[in-house]
């Protein structure tokens, strides 16, 4: 028996992955080329161009990492951090804590500023810290997937720009669903993932390095400790007329990313952002009519990841189970201190459509009644 034949068409409305456009599925199915084939190199160059536009950057090193968003996170730290380097991580959710874990494994001297989950990073606290101490790198999550909070990256970037620190931003959930302006916000390293608002299956992850970040890489005292993610070698595969083999690229995944990025640019970035925001507002209004509240204050809510407070007397695990088994809709649970207290509803990429919001609201109304 072929188990693939029994896979159901679940509507993905959780924290990722998101639903995939049929044209992206088609792209994934195209014949595999060699990773140094001249035609494939043309596709690589187009991917770089598309990523620059969507990430708002002119950085030459703007490429996809062969791996999920967690690989891009590790690549961001492992290429510029050496033992003893001072790092500041701003934490208000799971993925800030993950940054700390990655940096500590590299021997960094890590400081943190922590904020209550469900609230945003406060720029004034960051400024106060940076006025008193110097860091090689300052890291923050733009869209905290675990809480549905949008952190004020632009304001934090203004503060970090007055220092010598490298500014690192996690845009795994935000890229492709809301503006990400790497150059304008003074971001030195920014990474994302393919499976959220880009609506490509997980497996490749955009990343960009500024000249300041590349200088830190080039001036290392020791080799990058992770061979697979060593950008001093990977860049040679993505740059220049003569490409140098490093590892076999995930050819068909890059086809998928190419098509997913093209779909976004064909629709128009502002149109895509508006679609996410409009469907977020429709969802919030519908939830309010059911007596369901949001965790995050309106000014800091993400359009693509909605943290919803579980109604009194309801069992969040039972709600998710019924949605999946009876309505073929997947949503997410809370994590850490929010486990059992919230539901996480994703409106990411191709999922962010009016009919999907209406389908979910109808299902929730039936379950809660």
Report the count of strand segments.
14
The gyration radius over C-alpha positions equals 21 Å
The share of residues in extended strands comes to 15-25%
User: How do the SSEs run, as a string of H and E?
Assistant: EHHEHEHEHEEEHEEEHHHHEHEEEH
Strand order of the largest sheet: 2-10-9-8-5-3-4
Q: How many domains make up the coordinates?
A: 2
The average pLDDT is: 97
Account of the 3D structure:
The protein is α/β, with parallel strands linked by helices. It has helices at residues 22-28, 38-55, 69-78, 94-105, 123-132, 153-160, 211-218, 231-238, 251-267, 269-289, 316-327, 354-368, and strands at residues 11-12, 61-66, 86-91, 109-114, 137-141, 143-144, 149-150, 166-170, 189-191, 204-209, 305-309, 329-330, 332-333, 342-346. The protein has a seven-stranded mixed β-sheet, sandwiched between helices. Strands 11-14-13 form a three-stranded antiparallel β-sheet, covered by helices on one side. Helix 1 (22-28) packs antiparallel against helix 9 and helix 9 crosses helix 10 (269-289). The longest helix is centred in the C-terminal third of the chain and has 21 residues, at 269-289.
Which helices and strands, and how do they pair?
Layout: E1 11-12, H1 22-28, H2 38-55, E2 61-66, H3 69-78, E3 86-91, H4 94-105, E4 109-114, H5 123-132, E5 137-141, E6 143-144, E7 149-150, H6 153-160, E8 166-170, E9 189-191, E10 204-209, H7 211-218, H8 231-238, H9 251-267, H10 269-289, E11 305-309, H11 316-327, E12 329-330, E13 332-333, E14 342-346, H12 354-368
Parallel strand pairs: 1-12, 3-4, 3-5, 5-8, 8-9
Antiparallel strand pairs: 2-10, 6-7, 9-10, 11-14, 13-14
Helix pairs in contact: 1-9, 2-9, 5-6, 9-10, 10-12, 11-12
């Amino acid at each position: 028996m072929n188990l693939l034949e029994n896979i159901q068409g679940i509507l993905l409305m959780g924290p990722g992955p998101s639903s995939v456009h049929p044209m992206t599925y088609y792209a994934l199915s195209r014949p595999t080329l060699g990773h140094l084939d001249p035609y494939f190199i043309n596709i690589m160059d187009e991917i770089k161009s598309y990523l620059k536009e969507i990430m708002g950057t002119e950085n030459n090193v703007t490429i996809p990492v062969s791996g999920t968003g967690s690989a891009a996170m590790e690549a961001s730290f492992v290429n510029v951090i050496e033992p003893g380097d001072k790092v500041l991580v701003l934490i208000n959710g799971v993925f800030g804590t993950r940054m700390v874990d990655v940096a500590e494994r590299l021997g960094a001297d890590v400081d943190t500023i922590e904020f209550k989950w469900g609230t945003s990073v406060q720029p004034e606290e960051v400024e106060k810290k940076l006025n008193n101490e110097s860091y090689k790198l300052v890291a923050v999550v733009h869209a905290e997937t675990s809480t549905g909070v949008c952190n004020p990256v632009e304001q934090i970037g203004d503060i970090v720009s007055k220092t010598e620190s490298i500014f690192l931003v996690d845009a795994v959930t935000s890229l492709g669903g809301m503006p990400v302006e790497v150059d304008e916000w003074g971001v030195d390293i920014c990474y994302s993932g393919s499976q959220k608002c880009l609506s490509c299956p997980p497996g490749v992850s955009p990343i960009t390095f500024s000249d300041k970040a590349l200088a830190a890489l080039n001036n290392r005292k020791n080799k990058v400790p992770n061979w697979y993610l060593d950008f001093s070698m990977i860049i040679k595969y993505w740059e220049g007329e003569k490409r140098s083999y490093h590892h076999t690229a995930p050819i068909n995944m890059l086809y998928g990313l190419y098509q997913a990025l093209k779909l976004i640019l064909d629709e128009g970035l502002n149109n895509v952002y508006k679609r996410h925001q409009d469907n977020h507002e429709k969802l919030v209004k519908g939830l309010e009519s059911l007596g369901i509240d949001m965790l995050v204050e309106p000014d800091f809510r993400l359009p693509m990841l909605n943290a919803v407070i579980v109604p009194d007397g309801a069992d969040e695990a039972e709600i998710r189970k019924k949605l999946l088994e009876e309505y073929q809709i997947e949503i997410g649970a809370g994590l850490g201190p929010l486990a059992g207290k919230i539901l996480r509803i994703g409106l990411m990429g191709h999922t962010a459509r009016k009919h999907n919001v209406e389908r979910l609201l109808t299902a929730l109304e039936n379950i809660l009644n």
